[in-house]
Design a protein that fits this description.
By secondary structure, this protein is of the alpha+beta class. It contains 1 helix and 3 strands; from the N terminus they run βββα. The protein has a domain of 47 residues: Double Stranded RNA Binding Domain.
Amino acid sequence: MDPRRYLVIIEHVQGSNYSAYVPDLPGCVATGDTQAEVVRNIREAIALHIEGLREDGLDVPEPTSKGEYVEAVA
């Protein structure tokens, strides 16, 4: 099985909490007190999400989302 690389969006929310989600895997989310923790947690969430899809006999979506930083003039 080939490894897949999914785009993960990490957001810093109120206080020092972080959240993360995977656009190509709806419902796959994680939180953490630090950025490093949320990255660890989203990796685990992705693995569990994919395992659940397979157990339910559903297709695992291919990663298609891309990210880009864009400068904005304010």
